[in-house]
Amino acid sequence: MTEHMVVIGAGEAGARAAMALRENGFAGTITLIGDEHHLPYERPPLSKAVLTGAEEPAPPHILDEARLAARGVSLLHGTAAIAIDRAGHRVALAGSDAVPYDRLLIATGARARRLAVPGTGPETVHYLRSFPEALALRRRLVPGHRLIVIGGGFIGLELAAAARARGADATVIEMAPRLLGRAVPQEFAALLAARHEAEGVRLVLGATIDRIETTAEAHSVVLGSGEIITGDTIVAGIGALPETALAEAAGLAIDNGIAVDASLATDDPDIFAAGDCCSFPHPLYDGRRIRLEAWRNAQDQGNAVAKAMLGGREPYEAVPWFWSDQYDLTLQIAGLSYLATATVTRDLGDGARLDFHLADDGRLVSASALGPNGRIARDVRLAEMLIARRARPPAADLADPATKLKSLMV
Amino acid sequence: MPTAIATRWIEACAADEIDEEDVIRFDEGDRTFAIYRSPDDTYFATDGLCTHEKVHLADGLVMDNIIECPKHNGRFDYTTGKAKGAPVCVDLKTYPVRVEGGKVLIGLD
Ligand SMILES: Cc1cc2nc3c(=O)[nH]c(=O)nc-3n(C[C@H](O)[C@H](O)[C@H](O)COP(=O)(O)OP(=O)(O)OC[C@H]3O[C@@H](n4cnc5c(N)ncnc54)[C@H](O)[C@@H]3O)c2cc1C
Ligand code: FES
Protein backbone atom coordinates (compact mmCIF):
# COMPACT_ATOMS: atom_id res chain seq x y z
CA MET A 1 0.00 0.00 0.00
CA THR A 2 1.19 3.50 -0.75
CA GLU A 3 1.27 5.50 2.45
CA HIS A 4 4.26 7.80 2.22
CA MET A 5 4.95 10.18 -0.63
CA VAL A 6 8.23 12.08 -0.50
CA VAL A 7 9.30 14.92 -2.78
CA ILE A 8 12.91 16.10 -2.95
CA GLY A 9 13.15 19.73 -4.10
CA ALA A 10 10.63 22.37 -3.01
CA GLY A 11 10.71 24.42 -6.20
CA GLU A 12 8.04 24.90 -8.84
CA ALA A 13 7.69 21.24 -9.81
CA GLY A 14 8.09 19.76 -6.34
CA ALA A 15 5.70 22.15 -4.63
CA ARG A 16 3.07 21.70 -7.33
CA ALA A 17 3.37 17.92 -7.20
CA ALA A 18 3.02 17.85 -3.41
CA MET A 19 -0.20 19.85 -3.62
CA ALA A 20 -1.48 17.86 -6.59
CA LEU A 21 -0.99 14.54 -4.80
CA ARG A 22 -3.57 15.68 -2.28
CA GLU A 23 -5.81 17.31 -4.88
CA ASN A 24 -5.90 13.93 -6.62
CA GLY A 25 -7.18 12.22 -3.51
CA PHE A 26 -4.05 10.77 -1.91
CA ALA A 27 -4.72 10.24 1.81
CA GLY A 28 -1.30 9.29 3.25
CA THR A 29 1.63 11.48 4.31
CA ILE A 30 3.26 13.95 1.93
CA THR A 31 6.74 15.24 2.80
CA LEU A 32 8.31 18.03 0.76
CA ILE A 33 12.06 18.42 1.30
CA GLY A 34 13.78 21.63 0.23
CA ASP A 35 17.30 22.83 0.88
CA GLU A 36 16.44 26.52 0.51
CA HIS A 37 15.42 28.43 3.60
CA HIS A 38 12.40 30.15 2.05
CA LEU A 39 8.98 28.74 1.40
CA PRO A 40 8.72 27.62 -2.25
CA TYR A 41 8.91 30.61 -4.59
CA GLU A 42 8.74 31.45 -8.26
CA ARG A 43 12.04 31.97 -10.06
CA PRO A 44 10.99 33.89 -13.19
CA PRO A 45 10.53 37.19 -11.26
CA LEU A 46 14.14 36.92 -10.01
CA SER A 47 15.43 38.36 -13.27
CA LYS A 48 12.47 40.71 -13.68
CA ALA A 49 10.33 42.39 -10.98
CA VAL A 50 12.59 41.35 -8.09
CA LEU A 51 15.39 43.35 -9.72
CA THR A 52 13.35 46.29 -10.98
CA GLY A 53 10.46 46.70 -8.53
CA ALA A 54 10.35 49.96 -6.64
CA GLU A 55 10.29 48.37 -3.21
CA GLU A 56 12.70 45.88 -1.67
CA PRO A 57 11.02 42.63 -2.68
CA ALA A 58 9.95 39.56 -0.74
CA PRO A 59 10.35 36.15 -2.39
CA PRO A 60 7.42 35.58 -4.79
CA HIS A 61 5.98 32.64 -2.87
CA ILE A 62 4.07 29.84 -4.53
CA LEU A 63 2.62 28.58 -1.25
CA ASP A 64 2.19 29.78 2.29
CA GLU A 65 1.99 27.90 5.58
CA ALA A 66 -1.81 28.02 5.54
CA ARG A 67 -2.12 26.36 2.15
CA LEU A 68 0.46 23.72 3.04
CA ALA A 69 -1.44 23.00 6.25
CA ALA A 70 -4.78 22.90 4.44
CA ARG A 71 -3.39 20.22 2.12
CA GLY A 72 -1.55 18.41 4.91
CA VAL A 73 1.84 18.75 3.24
CA SER A 74 4.80 18.77 5.64
CA LEU A 75 7.55 20.99 4.34
CA LEU A 76 11.05 20.41 5.65
CA HIS A 77 12.78 23.54 4.44
CA GLY A 78 16.42 24.35 4.92
CA THR A 79 16.93 20.57 4.71
CA ALA A 80 19.05 18.89 2.05
CA ALA A 81 18.44 15.32 0.95
CA ILE A 82 21.83 13.66 0.82
CA ALA A 83 21.18 10.11 -0.36
CA ILE A 84 18.46 7.84 -1.66
CA ASP A 85 18.46 4.32 -0.26
CA ARG A 86 16.49 2.49 -2.93
CA ALA A 87 16.58 -0.91 -1.28
CA GLY A 88 15.44 0.47 2.07
CA HIS A 89 13.04 3.00 0.48
CA ARG A 90 14.44 5.89 2.53
CA VAL A 91 15.83 9.34 1.89
CA ALA A 92 18.75 10.42 4.08
CA LEU A 93 18.70 14.04 5.20
CA ALA A 94 21.43 16.39 6.36
CA GLY A 95 21.01 16.95 10.08
CA SER A 96 17.81 14.97 10.67
CA ASP A 97 16.39 11.46 10.53
CA ALA A 98 15.89 9.67 7.24
CA VAL A 99 12.34 9.69 5.85
CA PRO A 100 10.74 6.53 4.48
CA TYR A 101 8.97 6.60 1.11
CA ASP A 102 6.72 4.35 -0.85
CA ARG A 103 6.95 6.60 -3.89
CA LEU A 104 9.59 9.28 -4.34
CA LEU A 105 9.72 12.32 -6.61
CA ILE A 106 13.02 13.97 -7.47
CA ALA A 107 12.40 17.60 -8.43
CA THR A 108 15.81 19.07 -7.74
CA GLY A 109 15.80 21.53 -10.65
CA ALA A 110 18.99 22.87 -12.12
CA ARG A 111 21.91 24.98 -11.01
CA ALA A 112 23.72 27.78 -12.77
CA ARG A 113 26.65 26.60 -14.86
CA ARG A 114 29.88 28.05 -13.44
CA LEU A 115 32.29 30.06 -15.50
CA ALA A 116 35.59 28.21 -15.80
CA VAL A 117 38.31 30.72 -16.60
CA PRO A 118 41.18 31.95 -14.43
CA GLY A 119 40.20 34.57 -11.89
CA THR A 120 36.66 33.38 -11.15
CA GLY A 121 35.50 32.85 -7.60
CA PRO A 122 32.63 33.64 -5.29
CA GLU A 123 33.94 37.16 -4.76
CA THR A 124 34.31 37.94 -8.44
CA VAL A 125 31.48 36.32 -10.39
CA HIS A 126 27.78 36.36 -9.51
CA TYR A 127 25.09 33.94 -10.66
CA LEU A 128 21.32 34.13 -10.66
CA ARG A 129 19.23 31.15 -9.67
CA SER A 130 17.98 31.87 -6.14
CA PHE A 131 16.23 34.68 -4.31
CA PRO A 132 19.27 35.63 -2.17
CA GLU A 133 21.35 35.90 -5.34
CA ALA A 134 18.71 38.12 -6.94
CA LEU A 135 18.60 40.35 -3.88
CA ALA A 136 22.39 40.70 -3.85
CA LEU A 137 22.35 41.75 -7.50
CA ARG A 138 19.42 44.10 -7.00
CA ARG A 139 21.31 45.98 -4.31
CA ARG A 140 24.14 46.60 -6.72
CA LEU A 141 22.02 47.90 -9.58
CA VAL A 142 22.11 51.61 -8.84
CA PRO A 143 22.59 54.49 -11.27
CA GLY A 144 26.09 54.52 -12.68
CA HIS A 145 26.96 50.99 -11.53
CA ARG A 146 28.69 49.08 -14.32
CA LEU A 147 27.27 45.57 -14.77
CA ILE A 148 29.07 43.08 -16.98
CA VAL A 149 26.90 40.18 -18.05
CA ILE A 150 28.59 37.09 -19.41
CA GLY A 151 26.19 35.17 -21.62
CA GLY A 152 23.58 36.54 -24.04
CA GLY A 153 20.83 34.08 -23.16
CA PHE A 154 17.48 34.79 -21.52
CA ILE A 155 18.75 35.41 -18.02
CA GLY A 156 21.66 37.54 -19.20
CA LEU A 157 19.43 39.70 -21.38
CA GLU A 158 16.78 40.11 -18.70
CA LEU A 159 19.56 41.14 -16.33
CA ALA A 160 20.82 43.72 -18.81
CA ALA A 161 17.30 45.11 -19.26
CA ALA A 162 16.84 45.26 -15.49
CA ALA A 163 20.16 47.05 -15.07
CA ARG A 164 19.12 49.70 -17.59
CA ALA A 165 15.73 50.07 -15.91
CA ARG A 166 17.57 50.92 -12.70
CA GLY A 167 19.95 53.32 -14.36
CA ALA A 168 22.97 51.05 -14.26
CA ASP A 169 25.27 50.47 -17.25
CA ALA A 170 25.22 47.07 -18.89
CA THR A 171 27.62 45.22 -21.18
CA VAL A 172 26.71 41.76 -22.44
CA ILE A 173 29.49 39.45 -23.61
CA GLU A 174 28.44 36.48 -25.73
CA MET A 175 30.58 33.78 -27.28
CA ALA A 176 28.31 33.09 -30.25
CA PRO A 177 27.99 35.56 -33.11
CA ARG A 178 24.32 36.17 -32.13
CA LEU A 179 22.19 36.32 -29.01
CA LEU A 180 19.94 33.59 -27.58
CA GLY A 181 21.27 30.50 -29.30
CA ARG A 182 19.34 28.12 -31.51
CA ALA A 183 16.10 27.98 -29.55
CA VAL A 184 15.11 31.43 -30.80
CA PRO A 185 14.65 32.36 -34.47
CA GLN A 186 17.49 34.50 -35.80
CA GLU A 187 15.18 37.40 -36.72
CA PHE A 188 13.87 37.67 -33.17
CA ALA A 189 17.38 37.57 -31.74
CA ALA A 190 18.30 40.41 -34.10
CA LEU A 191 15.24 42.47 -33.10
CA LEU A 192 16.08 42.02 -29.42
CA ALA A 193 19.74 42.88 -30.03
CA ALA A 194 18.69 46.14 -31.72
CA ARG A 195 16.39 46.97 -28.83
CA HIS A 196 19.10 46.36 -26.24
CA GLU A 197 21.49 48.60 -28.15
CA ALA A 198 18.83 51.30 -28.42
CA GLU A 199 18.46 51.09 -24.64
CA GLY A 200 22.17 51.69 -24.22
CA VAL A 201 23.36 48.13 -23.62
CA ARG A 202 26.74 47.35 -25.13
CA LEU A 203 26.71 43.95 -26.86
CA VAL A 204 30.01 42.20 -27.44
CA LEU A 205 29.31 39.19 -29.64
CA GLY A 206 31.59 36.42 -30.86
CA ALA A 207 33.93 36.99 -27.90
CA THR A 208 35.94 34.46 -25.94
CA ILE A 209 36.93 35.10 -22.36
CA ASP A 210 40.53 34.67 -21.38
CA ARG A 211 40.37 35.54 -17.68
CA ILE A 212 38.86 37.70 -14.96
CA GLU A 213 41.04 40.27 -13.23
CA THR A 214 40.18 41.90 -9.94
CA THR A 215 41.64 44.99 -8.30
CA ALA A 216 40.52 46.88 -5.22
CA GLU A 217 38.39 49.17 -7.39
CA ALA A 218 36.99 47.03 -10.17
CA HIS A 219 36.54 43.72 -11.91
CA SER A 220 37.65 43.22 -15.49
CA VAL A 221 36.95 40.65 -18.12
CA VAL A 222 39.90 40.08 -20.41
CA LEU A 223 38.72 38.86 -23.80
CA GLY A 224 40.57 36.49 -26.11
CA SER A 225 41.02 39.45 -28.46
CA GLY A 226 42.98 41.24 -25.73
CA GLU A 227 40.22 43.79 -25.12
CA ILE A 228 39.61 44.49 -21.44
CA ILE A 229 36.08 45.27 -20.24
CA THR A 230 36.01 46.84 -16.82
CA GLY A 231 33.03 47.09 -14.48
CA ASP A 232 31.80 46.90 -10.91
CA THR A 233 29.90 43.62 -10.97
CA ILE A 234 30.28 40.56 -13.16
CA VAL A 235 27.38 38.13 -13.47
CA ALA A 236 27.41 34.98 -15.56
CA GLY A 237 24.28 33.57 -17.18
CA ILE A 238 25.80 30.78 -19.23
CA GLY A 239 23.19 28.10 -18.85
CA ALA A 240 22.08 25.64 -16.23
CA LEU A 241 22.97 22.06 -15.40
CA PRO A 242 20.36 19.57 -14.23
CA GLU A 243 20.74 18.70 -10.56
CA THR A 244 21.22 14.94 -10.91
CA ALA A 245 23.79 14.08 -8.21
CA LEU A 246 21.38 12.23 -5.88
CA ALA A 247 19.85 10.23 -8.70
CA GLU A 248 23.24 9.40 -10.15
CA ALA A 249 24.59 8.23 -6.80
CA ALA A 250 21.49 6.05 -6.41
CA GLY A 251 22.25 4.41 -9.76
CA LEU A 252 19.28 5.79 -11.69
CA ALA A 253 19.63 6.26 -15.45
CA ILE A 254 20.90 9.71 -16.46
CA ASP A 255 20.70 11.12 -19.98
CA ASN A 256 21.02 14.91 -20.05
CA GLY A 257 19.06 14.92 -16.80
CA ILE A 258 17.38 12.15 -14.84
CA ALA A 259 15.96 9.93 -17.56
CA VAL A 260 12.23 9.30 -17.16
CA ASP A 261 9.67 7.57 -19.38
CA ALA A 262 6.56 9.10 -20.93
CA SER A 263 4.78 9.05 -17.57
CA LEU A 264 7.76 10.58 -15.75
CA ALA A 265 8.91 7.39 -13.96
CA THR A 266 12.64 6.65 -13.72
CA ASP A 267 14.01 3.16 -14.28
CA ASP A 268 13.00 2.47 -10.67
CA PRO A 269 9.19 2.20 -10.73
CA ASP A 270 8.90 3.81 -7.29
CA ILE A 271 10.96 6.87 -8.20
CA PHE A 272 9.82 9.69 -10.48
CA ALA A 273 11.38 12.94 -11.64
CA ALA A 274 9.92 16.22 -12.91
CA GLY A 275 10.93 19.74 -13.91
CA ASP A 276 14.33 21.10 -14.93
CA CYS A 277 16.19 18.03 -13.58
CA CYS A 278 14.65 15.44 -15.90
CA SER A 279 14.71 14.44 -19.54
CA PHE A 280 11.67 12.81 -21.08
CA PRO A 281 10.50 11.54 -24.46
CA HIS A 282 8.07 13.96 -26.10
CA PRO A 283 5.27 12.28 -28.11
CA LEU A 284 4.68 15.40 -30.24
CA TYR A 285 8.27 15.38 -31.47
CA ASP A 286 8.75 11.77 -32.57
CA GLY A 287 9.42 10.70 -29.00
CA ARG A 288 12.67 12.65 -28.95
CA ARG A 289 14.18 12.88 -25.46
CA ILE A 290 14.24 16.49 -24.32
CA ARG A 291 14.94 18.44 -21.17
CA LEU A 292 13.22 21.77 -20.61
CA GLU A 293 14.12 24.65 -18.35
CA ALA A 294 10.76 26.31 -18.35
CA TRP A 295 8.41 27.39 -15.66
CA ARG A 296 5.14 26.11 -17.08
CA ASN A 297 6.68 22.74 -17.83
CA ALA A 298 7.77 22.48 -14.20
CA GLN A 299 4.20 23.20 -13.13
CA ASP A 300 2.58 20.91 -15.69
CA GLN A 301 4.98 18.08 -14.92
CA GLY A 302 4.33 18.61 -11.21
CA ASN A 303 0.63 18.07 -11.85
CA ALA A 304 1.21 15.16 -14.19
CA VAL A 305 3.73 13.34 -12.03
CA ALA A 306 1.36 13.40 -9.06
CA LYS A 307 -1.12 11.40 -11.12
CA ALA A 308 1.61 9.03 -12.26
CA MET A 309 2.75 8.48 -8.66
CA LEU A 310 -0.82 7.51 -7.86
CA GLY A 311 -0.77 4.88 -10.59
CA GLY A 312 -1.81 6.86 -13.69
CA ARG A 313 -0.26 5.86 -17.00
CA GLU A 314 -1.07 8.84 -19.16
CA PRO A 315 1.88 10.11 -21.21
CA TYR A 316 3.00 13.67 -20.57
CA GLU A 317 2.62 15.58 -23.80
CA ALA A 318 2.06 19.24 -22.93
CA VAL A 319 3.34 21.59 -25.62
CA PRO A 320 6.59 23.18 -24.38
CA TRP A 321 6.03 26.88 -23.71
CA PHE A 322 8.38 29.59 -22.59
CA TRP A 323 8.38 33.34 -22.23
CA SER A 324 10.91 36.07 -21.53
CA ASP A 325 10.29 39.73 -20.69
CA GLN A 326 12.78 42.40 -21.74
CA TYR A 327 11.79 46.07 -21.47
CA ASP A 328 8.16 46.25 -22.63
CA LEU A 329 8.66 43.30 -24.97
CA THR A 330 7.67 39.72 -24.37
CA LEU A 331 9.05 36.81 -26.31
CA GLN A 332 6.91 33.68 -26.24
CA ILE A 333 7.78 30.35 -27.80
CA ALA A 334 5.41 27.40 -28.04
CA GLY A 335 6.57 24.02 -29.28
CA LEU A 336 9.98 22.95 -30.50
CA SER A 337 11.50 23.72 -33.85
CA TYR A 338 13.28 20.35 -34.41
CA LEU A 339 11.01 19.23 -37.21
CA ALA A 340 10.49 22.69 -38.73
CA THR A 341 11.50 23.26 -42.32
CA ALA A 342 9.44 26.35 -43.21
CA THR A 343 8.35 29.57 -41.52
CA VAL A 344 5.26 31.71 -42.09
CA THR A 345 5.10 35.17 -40.52
CA ARG A 346 1.99 36.99 -39.31
CA ASP A 347 2.14 40.72 -38.61
CA LEU A 348 0.34 41.39 -35.31
CA GLY A 349 0.59 45.18 -35.57
CA ASP A 350 2.55 47.67 -33.44
CA GLY A 351 5.77 45.95 -34.49
CA ALA A 352 4.65 42.64 -32.96
CA ARG A 353 5.15 39.52 -35.03
CA LEU A 354 4.31 35.86 -34.85
CA ASP A 355 6.26 33.20 -36.74
CA PHE A 356 4.75 29.79 -37.37
CA HIS A 357 7.20 26.96 -37.93
CA LEU A 358 5.97 24.10 -40.08
CA ALA A 359 7.29 20.59 -40.70
CA ASP A 360 7.69 19.07 -44.17
CA ASP A 361 4.16 17.69 -44.13
CA GLY A 362 2.71 21.10 -43.24
CA ARG A 363 2.21 20.27 -39.57
CA LEU A 364 2.55 23.21 -37.21
CA VAL A 365 5.31 22.28 -34.76
CA SER A 366 6.28 25.58 -33.18
CA ALA A 367 5.37 29.25 -32.96
CA SER A 368 7.37 32.19 -31.70
CA ALA A 369 6.28 35.76 -31.15
CA LEU A 370 7.84 39.01 -30.05
CA GLY A 371 6.01 42.18 -29.04
CA PRO A 372 4.05 43.71 -26.19
CA ASN A 373 2.57 40.80 -24.23
CA GLY A 374 -1.01 41.89 -24.81
CA ARG A 375 -0.44 41.83 -28.59
CA ILE A 376 1.01 38.36 -28.88
CA ALA A 377 -0.24 36.18 -26.03
CA ARG A 378 -3.65 35.16 -27.29
CA ASP A 379 -2.39 34.15 -30.72
CA VAL A 380 0.54 32.19 -29.29
CA ARG A 381 -1.89 30.36 -27.03
CA LEU A 382 -4.09 29.47 -30.00
CA ALA A 383 -1.01 28.41 -31.96
CA GLU A 384 -0.07 26.19 -29.06
CA MET A 385 -3.48 24.55 -29.17
CA LEU A 386 -3.05 23.95 -32.91
CA ILE A 387 0.38 22.40 -32.23
CA ALA A 388 -1.14 20.08 -29.62
CA ARG A 389 -3.72 18.94 -32.19
CA ARG A 390 -1.00 18.27 -34.76
CA ALA A 391 -2.91 20.64 -37.05
CA ARG A 392 -1.84 21.45 -40.61
CA PRO A 393 -3.32 24.91 -41.10
CA PRO A 394 -3.04 26.47 -44.57
CA ALA A 395 -0.02 28.76 -44.73
CA ALA A 396 -2.07 31.54 -46.29
CA ASP A 397 -4.45 31.55 -43.31
CA LEU A 398 -1.58 31.62 -40.86
CA ALA A 399 -0.01 34.61 -42.60
CA ASP A 400 -3.24 36.63 -42.81
CA PRO A 401 -3.92 38.70 -39.68
CA ALA A 402 -7.59 38.89 -40.72
CA THR A 403 -8.02 35.12 -40.26
CA LYS A 404 -8.79 34.38 -36.63
CA LEU A 405 -6.65 31.53 -35.38
CA LYS A 406 -9.64 30.32 -33.39
CA SER A 407 -11.40 29.64 -36.69
CA LEU A 408 -8.62 27.18 -37.66
CA MET A 409 -9.30 25.09 -34.58
CA VAL A 410 -11.42 22.38 -36.18
CA MET B 1 -30.49 45.92 10.41
CA PRO B 2 -29.42 45.15 6.85
CA THR B 3 -28.21 48.17 4.99
CA ALA B 4 -28.95 48.44 1.32
CA ILE B 5 -25.78 49.02 -0.62
CA ALA B 6 -26.62 51.24 -3.52
CA THR B 7 -25.58 49.69 -6.80
CA ARG B 8 -24.48 52.17 -9.41
CA TRP B 9 -25.18 50.85 -12.92
CA ILE B 10 -22.85 52.11 -15.56
CA GLU B 11 -22.80 51.53 -19.29
CA ALA B 12 -19.73 49.50 -20.29
CA CYS B 13 -20.22 48.90 -24.00
CA ALA B 14 -22.69 47.94 -26.71
CA ALA B 15 -23.72 44.29 -26.50
CA ASP B 16 -22.55 43.59 -30.05
CA GLU B 17 -19.10 45.04 -29.38
CA ILE B 18 -18.11 41.71 -27.84
CA ASP B 19 -18.00 38.56 -29.94
CA GLU B 20 -19.42 35.38 -28.52
CA GLU B 21 -16.85 33.60 -26.33
CA ASP B 22 -14.74 36.74 -26.07
CA VAL B 23 -13.80 39.56 -23.74
CA ILE B 24 -13.14 43.29 -23.87
CA ARG B 25 -11.56 45.75 -21.50
CA PHE B 26 -13.57 48.56 -19.93
CA ASP B 27 -12.02 51.38 -17.90
CA GLU B 28 -13.87 53.69 -15.58
CA GLY B 29 -11.88 56.35 -13.78
CA ASP B 30 -8.86 54.55 -12.41
CA ARG B 31 -10.60 51.18 -12.35
CA THR B 32 -10.40 48.58 -15.05
CA PHE B 33 -12.79 45.73 -15.78
CA ALA B 34 -13.12 42.80 -18.13
CA ILE B 35 -16.52 42.24 -19.76
CA TYR B 36 -17.25 38.80 -21.17
CA ARG B 37 -19.78 37.28 -23.52
CA SER B 38 -20.10 33.54 -23.02
CA PRO B 39 -20.66 30.97 -25.79
CA ASP B 40 -24.34 30.79 -24.74
CA ASP B 41 -24.65 34.56 -25.14
CA THR B 42 -24.66 35.68 -21.52
CA TYR B 43 -22.64 38.65 -20.29
CA PHE B 44 -20.36 38.77 -17.24
CA ALA B 45 -17.98 41.26 -15.65
CA THR B 46 -14.92 40.89 -13.43
CA ASP B 47 -12.04 43.01 -12.25
CA GLY B 48 -9.79 43.66 -15.21
CA LEU B 49 -6.45 42.62 -13.77
CA CYS B 50 -5.13 39.14 -13.07
CA THR B 51 -4.63 38.46 -9.37
CA HIS B 52 -1.17 36.99 -10.06
CA GLU B 53 0.76 39.90 -11.59
CA LYS B 54 -1.86 42.50 -12.47
CA VAL B 55 -1.98 41.95 -16.20
CA HIS B 56 -5.07 42.94 -18.25
CA LEU B 57 -7.17 39.82 -18.64
CA ALA B 58 -8.93 41.25 -21.69
CA ASP B 59 -5.82 40.34 -23.71
CA GLY B 60 -6.35 36.70 -22.74
CA LEU B 61 -8.28 33.88 -24.30
CA VAL B 62 -11.87 32.95 -23.45
CA MET B 63 -12.76 29.26 -23.64
CA ASP B 64 -16.26 28.34 -22.49
CA ASN B 65 -16.58 29.92 -19.06
CA ILE B 66 -12.83 30.28 -18.55
CA ILE B 67 -10.65 33.34 -19.06
CA GLU B 68 -7.00 32.49 -19.40
CA CYS B 69 -4.50 35.15 -18.43
CA PRO B 70 -2.23 36.27 -21.27
CA LYS B 71 0.87 36.42 -19.10
CA HIS B 72 1.32 32.97 -17.55
CA ASN B 73 -1.96 31.26 -18.48
CA GLY B 74 -3.54 31.45 -15.04
CA ARG B 75 -7.23 30.52 -15.35
CA PHE B 76 -10.39 31.90 -13.82
CA ASP B 77 -14.05 30.98 -14.17
CA TYR B 78 -15.32 34.42 -15.18
CA THR B 79 -18.89 33.53 -14.25
CA THR B 80 -17.91 33.11 -10.58
CA GLY B 81 -14.43 34.69 -10.39
CA LYS B 82 -12.95 31.45 -9.05
CA ALA B 83 -9.21 30.94 -9.57
CA LYS B 84 -8.78 27.55 -11.22
CA GLY B 85 -5.30 26.65 -10.02
CA ALA B 86 -1.61 27.59 -10.15
CA PRO B 87 -0.23 30.11 -10.75
CA VAL B 88 -3.37 31.96 -9.69
CA CYS B 89 -4.72 31.33 -6.22
CA VAL B 90 -6.71 34.51 -5.44
CA ASP B 91 -10.21 34.76 -6.93
CA LEU B 92 -11.33 37.62 -9.17
CA LYS B 93 -14.02 40.00 -8.00
CA THR B 94 -17.16 39.77 -10.12
CA TYR B 95 -19.85 42.39 -10.82
CA PRO B 96 -23.51 42.05 -11.75
CA VAL B 97 -24.36 42.67 -15.39
CA ARG B 98 -27.59 43.73 -17.16
CA VAL B 99 -28.22 44.05 -20.86
CA GLU B 100 -30.69 46.80 -21.73
CA GLY B 101 -31.49 48.29 -25.10
CA GLY B 102 -28.43 46.73 -26.67
CA LYS B 103 -26.13 48.09 -23.95
CA VAL B 104 -24.15 46.16 -21.37
CA LEU B 105 -24.43 47.69 -17.90
CA ILE B 106 -22.33 46.67 -14.95
CA GLY B 107 -23.27 47.23 -11.34
CA LEU B 108 -20.63 48.83 -9.14
CA ASP B 109 -20.91 49.21 -5.40
C1 LIG C 1 16.38 33.91 -12.89
C2 LIG C 1 15.46 32.95 -13.58
C3 LIG C 1 14.51 33.43 -14.47
C4 LIG C 1 13.64 32.56 -15.13
N1 LIG C 1 12.73 33.08 -16.00
C5 LIG C 1 11.90 32.25 -16.67
C6 LIG C 1 10.95 32.77 -17.58
O1 LIG C 1 10.85 33.97 -17.82
N2 LIG C 1 10.12 31.89 -18.22
C7 LIG C 1 10.20 30.55 -18.01
O2 LIG C 1 9.44 29.80 -18.62
N3 LIG C 1 11.09 30.02 -17.13
C8 LIG C 1 11.95 30.85 -16.47
N4 LIG C 1 12.87 30.32 -15.59
C9 LIG C 1 12.93 28.85 -15.42
C10 LIG C 1 12.03 28.34 -14.32
O3 LIG C 1 12.12 29.13 -13.18
C11 LIG C 1 12.41 26.91 -14.02
O4 LIG C 1 12.15 26.15 -15.19
C12 LIG C 1 11.65 26.32 -12.86
O5 LIG C 1 11.94 26.99 -11.67
C13 LIG C 1 11.99 24.84 -12.70
O6 LIG C 1 11.35 24.31 -11.60
P1 LIG C 1 11.93 23.05 -10.84
O7 LIG C 1 11.00 22.78 -9.73
O8 LIG C 1 12.24 21.98 -11.81
O9 LIG C 1 13.35 23.52 -10.28
P2 LIG C 1 13.68 24.66 -9.22
O10 LIG C 1 12.70 25.75 -9.29
O11 LIG C 1 15.13 24.97 -9.46
O12 LIG C 1 13.53 23.94 -7.82
C14 LIG C 1 14.38 22.90 -7.39
C15 LIG C 1 14.53 23.02 -5.89
O13 LIG C 1 15.15 21.85 -5.39
C16 LIG C 1 16.10 22.22 -4.42
N5 LIG C 1 17.06 21.12 -4.25
C17 LIG C 1 18.02 20.70 -5.14
N6 LIG C 1 18.71 19.66 -4.62
C18 LIG C 1 18.18 19.39 -3.41
C19 LIG C 1 18.47 18.42 -2.39
N7 LIG C 1 19.43 17.52 -2.55
N8 LIG C 1 17.73 18.44 -1.25
C20 LIG C 1 16.74 19.35 -1.08
N9 LIG C 1 16.43 20.28 -2.01
C21 LIG C 1 17.14 20.30 -3.16
C22 LIG C 1 16.69 23.48 -5.00
O14 LIG C 1 17.37 24.25 -4.04
C23 LIG C 1 15.41 24.17 -5.47
O15 LIG C 1 14.79 24.89 -4.44
C24 LIG C 1 13.74 31.17 -14.91
C25 LIG C 1 14.71 30.68 -14.02
C26 LIG C 1 15.56 31.54 -13.36
C27 LIG C 1 16.59 31.00 -12.43
S1 FES D 1 -0.20 37.51 -14.43
FE1 FES D 1 -1.91 36.25 -14.77
S2 FES D 1 -1.15 34.27 -14.52
FE2 FES D 1 0.55 35.52 -14.05
UniProtKB/TrEMBL annotation, chain A:
Gene3D superfamilies linked to this entry: 3.30.390.30, FAD/NAD(P)-binding domain
InterPro entries in the record: FAD-oxidoreductase/Apoptosis, FAD/NAD-bd_sf, FAD/NAD-binding_dom, FAD/NAD-linked_Rdtase_dimer_sf, Reductase_C
Cellular component, GO, one term: cytoplasm
Domain of life, source organism: Bacteria
Domain Reductase C-terminal: 321-409
Cofactor(s) needed for function: FAD
SUPFAM superfamilies for this protein: FAD/NAD(P)-binding domain, FAD/NAD-linked reductases, dimerisation (C-terminal) domain
One Gene Ontology molecular-function label: oxidoreductase activity, acting on NAD(P)H
Xref: PANTHER family: APOPTOSIS-INDUCING FACTOR 1 (PTHR43557), RIESKE DOMAIN-CONTAINING PROTEIN-RELATED (PTHR43557:SF2)
Entry protein name: 3-phenylpropionate/trans-cinnamate dioxygenase ferredoxin reductase subunit
Organism of this sequence: Kaistia soli DSM 19436
Automatic annotation (TrEMBL), chain B:
Cofactors required: [2Fe-2S] cluster
UniProt-listed Gene3D superfamilies: Rieske [2Fe-2S] iron-sulphur domain
UniProt keyword Ubl conjugation present: no
Residues annotated as domain Rieske: 10-106
Statement: the UniProt record of this protein carries the keyword Protein transport: no
InterPro entries, per database record: MocE_2FeS (IPR012747), Rieske_2Fe-2S (IPR017941), Rieske_2Fe-2S_sf (IPR036922)
NCBIfam families reported in the protein's UniProt record: MocE_fam_FeS
Record's protein name: 3-phenylpropionate/trans-cinnamate dioxygenase ferredoxin subunit
Species of the source: Kaistia soli DSM 19436
